[in-house]
Write a structure and sequence with these properties.
Order of helices and strands: HHHHHH
Largest sheet: none
Radius of gyration: 15 Å
Number of helices: 6
Structural class: mainly alpha
């Protein structure tokens, strides 16, 4: 279960806070947990896991775009736009964020 897996990584990270591999594994587990929650349409919980992942290892544009997708699915377009702007600040050439931003802007106009 995701909670057990991330809990174990957190426990090990507390013992070895400078261990980059443990940090990466924890971030990846939180990210994948977010994906599983998103697929189950548990969008608020998915965003929480994505944000926790970002606190461990910054995934830049990709993670901001994932969070923006959850916000857009919840109809929170202004917040989604803000996340997408952060994504494009991190990587101006990140095409998924560019496309989603155009879509969010259209939805805000309607």
């Amino acid at each position: 279960n995701w909670d057990d897996a991330t809990g174990e990584f957190k426990r090990v990270l507390a013992l070895r806070p400078d261990d980059a591999k443990v940090r990466q594994h924890l971030a990846e587990a939180l990210y994948l947990w977010g994906d599983a929650l998103a697929q189950a349409n548990q969008l608020e919980h998915a965003m929480t896991r994505y944000r926790e992942s970002a606190e461990v290892v910054d995934r830049g544009a990709e993670l901001h775009t994932k969070i923006a997708l959850m916000l857009a699915r919840l109809g929170r377009f202004a917040e989604a736009r803000s996340e997408l702007e952060m994504a494009l600040k991190a990587d101006p050439a990140f095409v998924p964020a560019q496309r989603m931003l155009a879509d969010v802007q259209k939805r805000q106009q309607n």
